[in-house]
Design brief:
Blueprint (H helix, E strand, L loop, with lengths): L2 E7 H7 L1 H9 L1 H18 L3 E6 L9 E5 L2 E5 L6 H12 L5 E6 L3 H9 L3 E3 L1 H24 L10 H12 L4
Parallel strand pairs: 1-2, 1-5, 2-4, 5-6
Antiparallel strand pairs: 3-4
Length: about 170
């Protein structure tokens, strides 16, 4: 069975999205959270293990890994870029014939490096379009559920209601 991974350069995606970029101008944390919420819906619909990497270049701690609704979130260690973490992940996870790795980034040098390591590359803008498409599919699924919901009441005309009420009360004509 093939293993599927989608590895995302988080700040690169934020930088390619007008909405997230605007949010990031006032709060980078809020932009990250908005992206993670969108990815949680995406992750629920695909078979891939989703991993998102954020630069923590000026942070004094080591690499930090947390899970957010099934998504592995990695913050790089001090003086390490997200690109370096992504390259290491691709190298560690890739097994020819049994692994498919997609890397989401618009960094051209990163795209060439990961492509040479056996991973597929997806530009951030293309991935954002995929996320919008997935969101539209979710909306359609929800609408379909709402439209197929069993009715709680049966539509009955007044004459039939009166007859049923008389039967309920035991009045026989």
């Amino acid at each position: 069975m093939k293993k599927h991974y989608t590895i995302i350069d988080g700040y690169n995606v934020i930088g390619q999205s007008q909405t997230l970029k605007t949010i990031a101008q006032s709060s980078l944390e809020e932009a990250r959270n908005e992206l993670l919420l969108t990815l949680a819906s995406f992750e629920a619909r695909v078979d891939d293990e989703v991993i998102i990497v954020f630069d923590a270049y000026d942070v004094k701690d080591g690499q930090k890994e947390v899970y957010f609704h099934g998504i592995k979130v990695i913050y790089s260690r001090e003086k390490e870029t997200a690109d370096e973490v992504i390259e290491r992940l691709v190298y560690d996870l890739y097994e020819k014939h049994i692994t498919q790795i997609k890397v989401v980034t618009s960094d051209m040098s990163e795209q060439h490096t990961i492509f040479g390591s056996g991973a597929l590359r997806i530009p951030s803008r293309e991935f954002l379009n995929d996320l919008r498409y997935e969101a539209s599919l979710i909306e359609k699924d929800i609408e379909g559920l709402a439209n197929n919901r069993p009715r709680t009441r049966i539509s009955i005309d007044e004459t039939t209601k009166e007859k049923l009420e008389r039967l309920r009360r035991g009045i026989h004509d």
